[in-house]
Structure formats: C-alpha cells, structure tokens
Automatic annotation (TrEMBL):
Keywords: FAD, Flavoprotein, Membrane, Transmembrane, Transmembrane helix
Source organism of this protein record: Henosepilachna vigintioctopunctata
The protein, known as: Glucose-methanol-choline oxidoreductase N-terminal domain-containing protein
Biased composition (Polar residues): 203-221, 229-248
Keyword Transmembrane helix: yes
Amino acid sequence: MAIHLVLPVVASAMKTAIAVLGIGKLAIIPFLFASIAYFHYDQFDPENRILDVKQLLPSYDFIVVGAGSAGSVVANRLTENPNWNVLLIEAGGHENEITDVPILSLYLHKSKVDWGYKTEPQNTACQAMIEKRCSWTRGKVLGGSSVLNTMLYVRGNKRDFDHWVEQGNPGWSYEEVLPYFKKSEDQRNPYLARNTKYHATGGYQTVQDSPYNTPLAQRSFKQPKKWDTTSGISTERSKQDSPSTSSQ
Ligand SMILES: Cc1cc2nc3c(=O)[nH]c(=O)nc-3n(C[C@H](O)[C@H](O)[C@H](O)COP(=O)(O)OP(=O)(O)OC[C@H]3O[C@@H](n4cnc5c(N)ncnc54)[C@H](O)[C@@H]3O)c2cc1C
C-alpha cells in the first residue's frame, strides 16, 4: 500500500480517537503511529520490501546464492544490464523493525536472523563459555551478516591484499582493488573526501563519522600526533592504509 493510501487511514483513525477520547487524550497519537509503523513497517520504508518471485523462469543468465553483503551487490550490479535475468536466492527471511536500528544489532545475535553457529571447543579462547565454545554469529536474512554487524567501515589491510598476489592470485593487490573501494564509496566527511587518492564520493555506500560522541569517547580519541603529508592521513592509519569509520 502506498503512503498516499495509508495517510487518509491514519487521519481517519486520529479523528475517531479525538472524537472518542477528547482532545486531552491525544497522548494516544504517538502510540497510534508506533502501532501503524509496526504493522505496516515495510510500506513506510523508502526503499520498500523486496518481493519474492512467485514463479521462476525456466532459465536465468545468472543465479546468485546468498543475498548477503556480497551477493546483494553482485545481483544489483548484474541487473544493471536489462538484458540479463538474475535469480537471487536467500536462505533467510526479510528484515524487521529491530534490524534497522544499528545499536540494537547485539540483540539480533542468536535470533532467527542468525545461523546460530558455534565454534569447536577452544583450548586458548572462549574459556568462560559453556563447553569453551563461542557463538559465531552469521546473518541468515536478506542482507546477510551486514544486517547484524556494527556498520564500521573497515577496509582490509594493504599487506593482506599484496600477500594474496604473492600467493598466486593476480588482480588482488591493494593498488588493483583500491579503485573498486573508491567506486563504491560515498565519503561524507570532507576531511577524508578531499584525500582523493584513498577516498571518493558518489558511490552506493555512504560513509561518515558518527554524528555524536560521548564526552568520554571524545577524550579517548586523541588528535593524530603527526600527519603524513603524502597520503594526508594520520601516520597510524597510513601504516596499513585502512581508514575505518562508520557507514550508513
Ligand atoms: C557480529 C558481526 C559484526 C560485524 N561487524 C562488522 C563491521 O562493523 N564492519 C565490517 O566491515 N564488517 C563487520 N562484520 C563482517 C561483515 O558483516 C561480513 O564480513 C560480511 O557481511 C560478509 O559478507 P558475505 O556476503 O561474505 O556474507 P554474508 O553477508 O554473511 O551473506 C551470506 C548470505 O548467504 C546466505 N546463505 C548461506 N547459505 C545459503 C544457501 N545454501 N542458500 C541460500 N542462501 C544462503 C546467508 O543466509 C546470508 O544471507 C561483522 C560481522 C558480524 C557477524
């Protein structure tokens, strides 16, 4: 149902509530909105809910298994070509109201959007856990593990990429993957966006510093002592070329 169809229903419900309860009882309105948002959540979602197909085609140009961080991007890119039919298969269900609130992501662990894996018993880790086994959270939901992660924007370490090339994986050096990191990025922090060697704007993935830090956090983040004039980033970051910040 489109928003222009929902609004008259909300207006009518409010009129009824005022008529029945009187103007003093308007405190019901936030509750009313919360209820409506809860029961018709997907209709208020600007990106709206993806609909499952009811009938499959006899064949597809591409079948992507897993609609997680990688699969969703791959499927999106493939469907940019209107001549291709792409089937995206996901084992989990849809997101819910809680999954859209980043700070609640911890509550999603061990829920129905988590595969619920556990590590094997460990000798040196997970010592306080039952059977010395830790939970190994992985998303089982449209969006995959990105639905219950903490949204930190962390690029892989430069030396890891370069090591992959040394092990016989051409095309995976940091210099070769960097253009794709930049292509996907919409860096909203001007102090980073101006460093065009490492950052870019206009990509699908919005990246920005958290708009609010507690006073304690502000005291914890010390100003960089020294700036690398070639890269324009702090020496601590330039050591591994993996600037990290929040993505939204
Ligand atoms: C708790 C937690 C916090 C994290 N925090 C961060 C962070 O702050 N910053 C960061 O950069 N990274 C973070 N990560 C890591 C990041 O989320 C993952 O690296 C990333 O989401 C992995 O993407 P993926 O596409 O490889 O797998 P996933 O996103 O896990 O996608 C795999 C998908 O495949 C589906 N699937 C599996 N098997 C089948 C099947 N047989 N048929 C159909 N579908 C199937 C799954 O249900 C899932 O949806 C975090 C991860 C976790 C678990």
